[in-house]
Amino acid sequence: MTGNPPLSSQQAALFQSLNAHGISVNIYRHQPVYTCEQADALGLHTDANPTKNLLLKDRKGKQFFLVVLQGKATVNLAGLSEALGTSRLSFASSQQLETYLQAQSGAVSVIDVMNDPEHRVSLVIANAIWQVQAVECQPFCHDQTWVIATQDLARWLRAIGRDYQTVEHVA
User: Fold this and answer.
1) 125 with 65: CB under 8 angstroms?
2) How far apart are CA 46 and CA 147, in angstroms?
3) CA within 13 Å, CB half, 45
4) 27, 37, 112, 167: which one has the fewest Cβ atoms less than 10 Å from its Cβ?
């Protein structure tokens, strides 16, 4: 852990879950950021790839998807809808983000799936994520970045019973 930032109860639970599975994480404390661009401007030099995380819903609002992409990626929602075999995708609201993942806009991350024990949100991870050594995540807040090795992330997802679907980058 870099520095010694105080952890919220959610962060402490995440940290404990990772530790229980022998997974280490590097924690960086910084000024609050709300977009990928602001995070890039920090210049943290973590030796990890930032991620872009989107909570999307289908046309009827019955299916939800947490889509994890590389930080600079763009997404074609129509192409992604086709790849997932679902109706037109759109962005979920801040309220839905809070309801389904207990997350805040601008601080969404793959680790938020731990707040969805009913698996109401399908996890979708771009194949490109698995090609890097480590990823950056914002753990339930805007002023910290946690770095986790991708192989450890995959192991942790399996350990907590979270399946995920992989997709090619859909730009």
Assistant:
1) no
2) 7
3) 0
4) 37
Distances (CA, A) of 17 to 26, 55, 59: 15, 23, 34
In this predicted structure, what is the pLDDT of residue 5?
55
Q: Which two tokens stand for residue 39?
A: 């995070």
* pLDDT score at 53: 93
Give residue for tokens 């993942």. 101
Mean pLDDT estimate for the chain: 91
Cα 108 to its chain centre, rounded Å, is 6
Backbone angles phi, psi at 17, to 5 degrees: -65, -45
Give the helix ranges, DSSP H, for the chain.
Answer: 9-20, 36-42, 77-84, 94-101, 150-159
Burial of 43 (0-12, 13-18, 19+ CB in 10 A): exposed
DSSP string, 145-163: EEEEEHHHHHHHHHHTT--
Q: Is the dihedral of CA 141, 25, 100, 121 positive or negative?
A: positive
Contact 32, 142 (CB under 8 A): yes
Give the total residue count for the chain. Answer: 171
